[in-house]
């Protein structure tokens, strides 16, 4: 049993009463491990026919699977190829509730490391516009890398405060997710370090912060828009009471019922300050009811009028020479044609998401798909482009296989003899893109990014 904070134990005993015993018993059990398939890269049928690790379905997420603790799917080359995202199973339920659709404008306000953003982009089928924001400069890097690995192209990754975004995007979004920073009580089993920060005072501080973040989200939601609020904590102060307070501040926000199935429980009216009956529309995932950690989810709709967004759409700023270099590369090596607005950050070119709003003055980490860099009179494709393409999109590819050692050599950054001279080629593992190589005089020069290379 974990050495749980005494005040936490006492509080949960009072809250849960008869249920306290089965709840605390889960701390003697192994946590569940989950991965979620990336529909942008593979079908479930194809993936399950080749993946060597036995999987069991997560009942409340259409692409979610449990895997055995010892199996290490993070080390498999299919992970490098972005076929799945390793995600705590209960966390997979949140994006299902948000239910983003292709073509929508969606904001994930507290997004790193990107579990829910990558799920949202998959559900949008890489169309529409997703703004994935993370306030912490270090954590935003992990978010950006995951967006790249999963081959996501419809997403602008930013490193902003909710308040700064709210100034720019009033009344803009169809759907917003606030997966709020919280006291993390639901993750003690998965991440025991979270226990050292826990105190009653910390719970209250988190609750205050959540209210501020929700205010910013409210401003950015259009009329009829959907706001999903989630945490990975049990405390009523950060869940039922946060939602209750937010609804009191905004009478034009109403709770929508979340369908409860496979052990998912309703939020508790008796844990609100005003005995708010509609709070039972919210959902709680408890470790003694579902195979996963603790989560809370609320779904709300803005029924009142909203500020009309009057911003501008981002325009292309590439020079003729930059465009020429890119198009020469595209014509020579790809069957794929970029039909998006191309944007340049110095010599780095990006294909913006559809109808991407102007982002001047914002801290942008990744504006859509990183096509590559214009170097002296040539264009060098970026790793992100490789991960967004399939072997049918390129003129030449090299097919490595997971049961032959060459893929390991490629991931280590070694050169490979190929006997060909095709220039830029897409390197694949079992048909899934892994990265670029450049074939010159019979040898493949390795362009797998140095920071991602494996050591053994
Ligand atoms: C629960 S985590 C998000 C997990 C993420 N949605 C996922 O699925 O991978 C909450 C995030 O909120 C960020 N955060 C912390 N303080 C914040 C604030 N004041 N405003 C917005 N985000 C904040 C944290 O850095 C953290 O990355």
From TrEMBL:
Domain SAM-dependent MTase RsmB/NOP-type, residue spans: 13-303
UniProt-annotated catalytic positions: 232 (nucleophile)
Pfam family, one: RsmF_methylt_CI
KW Cytoplasm (keyword) present: yes
Sequence intervals crossing the membrane: none
Keyword field: Cytoplasm, Methyltransferase, RNA-binding, S-adenosyl-L-methionine, Transferase
Signal peptide: none
Single GO MF descriptor: RNA binding
Regions annotated as coiled coil: none
Family label: Belongs to the class I-like SAM-binding methyltransferase superfamily. RsmB/NOP family.
Protein name, as recorded: 16S rRNA (Cytosine(967)-C(5))-methyltransferase
Organism listed in the record: Paranoxybacillus vitaminiphilus
